Amino acid sequence: MKILTPFLVVVVLAAIAFFGVEVLQLQLLFGVVIPYLCLALFVIGFIYRIVRWGRSAVPFRIPTTAGQEKSLPWIKANKLDNPSSKAGVFVRMLLEVLVFRSLFRNIKVEKHQDRLVFASAKWLWLGALAFHWSFLIILIRHLGLFMDPIAPFVQILQSGDSFLQIGLPALFITDVVVLTALSYLFLRRVVIPRIRYISLPADYLALLLLIAIVLSGILMRYGFKVDMLAVKEFALGLATFTPQVTEGIGAIFYVHLFLVSVLFAYFPLSKLMHAGGIFFSPTRNMANNNRAVRHVNPWNYPVKVHTYEEYEDDFREKMKKAGIPVDRSE
Ligand code: HEM
User: Fold this and answer.
1) Closest C-alpha residue for ligand 1 atom 23
2) Ligand 1 centroid from CA 171, angstroms
3) Tens digits of per-residue pLDDT, 105-127?
4) CATH for 4-299, among 3.30.70.120, 1.10.8.60, 3.40.50.300, 1.20.950.20?
5) Contact residues for 46 (Cβ-Cβ < 8 A; gap 6+)
6) The pTM is what?
7) For the CA of 174, the nearest atom of ligand 1
């Protein structure tokens, strides 16, 4: 059920857009109103969550320390896995965001003849990296739809991505990579029993929604071709806030756009927010200088303390009678 329900949700979403445009002719609703609304939800929701994370208390220094800490001069510190400066944290974060370094360090533990064996596990890292990078390239390529003329960096990306020159329209390498990576990430949660056990419907929903977006895009490019001139005119209208419904765009385009809109609206409510959250993770964004610098909890309030001297003043006579040594005799 936890796989079937999100699957049905995505199918129903696609069917709603198809029916709404093909039968009810609601191009304005699915092409203009819903995309703008969902984009607004995305921007407001994203900012709201970032601001809330930014304002939440971080009273303790809890950096991830996955290497030798900086200490005595003759002990070699691991500057990347245990950074002691802001510059070190910046480089660690950059590598985390760009190449998912901590995922690369992922290992698996298996039991072989009553012994625990640790082994390398790189497939998840590879699948995640392939998905995120191809997704980013596809998004940047899509910017071309909203530009006239198309900026050179988008053109370079478009021709680089289709340099294999297979078929007409030319096959984009990222289309193959993103679909393969998403299929792997999905199947991993279905096939491996332990991963299936800890997976939630929301995990499947995000992946299935992305797969549906990619499939509808691929269908549009290589299958039921849409009138790209009409799409371009329509997209430019959206980008310049002078939207108009252009005739002759197939329903598949609206299905694609509707699924993208749902993804955008869902983004701030979901675990997809890890895209922004990573920068706020205290274990990642803190330098480990705990021994060099005294960090005082900024939320500390003045506490009334009872010093040893005061304690002794209170109990001196009793302590003397019991033979307990005292600092001052009176
Ligand atoms: C999360 C956002 C999106 C994703 C992941 C996505 C994904 C894709 C993919 C994988 C394709 C296949 C061909 C290619 O790679 O270019 C595609 C095609 C297409 N997408 Fe998207 N898309 C997104 C947003 C949009 C938006 C917002 C629009 C329009 C306003 C759009 C319009 C199109 C069109 C017209 C095509 C066909 C392109 C062609 O025939 O060359 N997409 N999309």
Assistant:
1) 260
2) 14
3) 888 888 888 888 888 889 999 99
4) 1.20.950.20
5) 267, 268, 273, 276
6) 0.87
7) 15
